[in-house]
Amino acid sequence: MAIKVTMPRLSDTMTEGTVATWLKKVGDKVSEGDILAEIETDKATMEFESFNEGTLLHIGIQAGETAPVDSLLAIIGNEGEDISALLAGGAAAPAAKAPKADAPAAEAKTETAAPAKAAELPKGVVVVTMPRLSDTMTEGTVATWLKKVGDTVAEGDILAEIETDKATMEFESFNAGTLLYIGIQEGNTAPVDSLLAIIGPAGTDISGIADNFTAGGAATTSAPAAEETKAAPAAEKAQEAVAETSNGGRILASPLAKKIASDKGIQLSQVKGSGENGRIVKSDIENFTPSAQTQTASSAPAAKQEAAPSSAPKVFVPAGEVYTEEIKNSQMRKIIAKRLSESLFTAPHYNLVIEVSMDEAMQARAAINSVPDTKVSFNDMVIKACALALKKHPKINSTWKEDAIIINHHVNIGVAVAVEDGLVVPVLKFTDAMSLSQIGGSVRDLAGRAKNKKLGPQEMEGSTFTVSNLGMFGITEFNSIINQPNSAILSVGAIVEKPVVKNGQIVVGNTMMLSLACDHRTIDGATGAQFLQTLKQYIESPVTMLA
């Protein structure tokens, strides 16, 4: 079955895109993961890959042309498949196919006009689709709806919080009107470009629009209309995430808040909701402090205390009993698995290791931090040294393409940050132009917002080199997997106090191990070794970084 491919939203501020280059032409076979085209956004030129396989049957936006997000970009289907109905329903459709020779002209006109009329939207009605909020996002989960059906929506209002593979982000409306329909309920996951909502003038009849959208080739998670009424009570109960309290009262909580509370072992009855009608939302759980737990436990009815033995934890008496736990993979975990597997199996990795003396760096850091309102970490010093060394060895700051090696003369260093669900890499743009204190402040800000899932996609894009530090966990040496499209990643270990030889004498010194993982397609061993030598010089003599 033929599938419509629409102009993707490749950044949260993108409203239209320009097709820079088509890498496939009509008639070409397309596999899932193939790069269809390079698309210019408001921020960068990015590769757009196919999430479907088949034959490229139609190109709706030619190279060099600009079109709004969600415009018809292409159609993929089976070779020779009739796509006239899809073209007639598309906003950017070319002229319809000529009618068969034996069919009257008037009849052909009626057949082609009917689908177009069915696909027309009432005046002022806009279909909102699941946005692509990061370059690696293929599907999203609606964490929280901040508007409900019937609410007035202004341009710029936050419609919902959407969980991507990297963060939970606020999704704002680009249209004004009334929220007429919600296509993806809280807690549900759907592919990019699925029907998310419908906005239009209050009282507009939108019956059939959701069905027409599905019939047009876009996937949604909505249930069939015949089952919608029957399932409504259960869906409403699930959306409200109602919990029973000990006194029979009800607690309203969003699915995301309920999940976080369950993960943290927090009882919803102890949390005060700040949402509508006292509804508990994510921030209430994150800001909750269990100060009232002891008082609640002491005031429990005696009857319930008598029943406590029956709810005592199970004792695993039989020796060797098999016990497993299944944890559903989050979007972030799925993408981490996919990207790192692709990197390890496509880029020929090799590692270079060097030991660096940290004695002078420790003295320099102490002197810098003695200045009021200044705080610099060893990791900040390593990042600064990397930025300067990359300017001297630009081949390390490169990207592999099948037909060329791209040398990046700007330095954007990604800093790996561990978060609850996995790993994110916020990016310090133009790191070489930043001072040590600027690097320190930026890293603390980005790391803090990363752990709270408040980073924007643009803050995790465009890295040319990556630094990963496990020294704070006591890890002395390790090897990382390259964060493609980078060609290298530096692994930073802990500072260790040990005997060292200086001027022929054994003395106590402080050293640190650095391991550089390189892509052998772009970086030869000697090139990587020269970069590490320069990096060592900067770290061992921090004053040279201030020149």
Explain this structure to me?
The chain is of the alpha+beta class and 547 residues long. The protein folds into three domains: 3-119, OB fold (Dihydrolipoamide Acetyltransferase, E2P) (Beta Barrel), CATH 2.40.50; 126-233, OB fold (Dihydrolipoamide Acetyltransferase, E2P); 331-546, Chloramphenicol acetyltransferase-like domain (Chloramphenicol Acetyltransferase). It has 13 helices and 28 strands. A six-stranded mixed beta sheet has the order 19-28-27-26-22-25. It has a four-stranded antiparallel beta sheet with strand order 1-8-6-3, with no helix packed on it. Strand 17 (243-244) and strand 18 form a beta hairpin. Helix 11 crosses helix 13.
Q: Could you say which structural class the secondary elements and strand pairing correspond to?
A: alpha+beta
Largest sheet: 6 strands, mixed
Helicity level: 25-40%
Number of separate domains: 3
* CATH domain fold name of the largest domain: Chloramphenicol Acetyltransferase
Let me know the CATH homologous superfamily of the largest domain: Chloramphenicol acetyltransferase-like domain
Low-confidence stretches: 90-119, 215-248, 292-310
Distance between the termini: 63 Å
Q: Rough shape? A: globular
Mean pLDDT: 80
Radius of gyration: 28 Å
CATH second-level architecture of the largest domain? 2-Layer Sandwich
Q: Helical stretch count?
A: 13
Count of strand segments: 28
Strand content: 25-35%
Q: Order of strands across the biggest sheet? A: 19-28-27-26-22-25
Q: Which class of the largest domain in CATH terms?
A: Alpha Beta
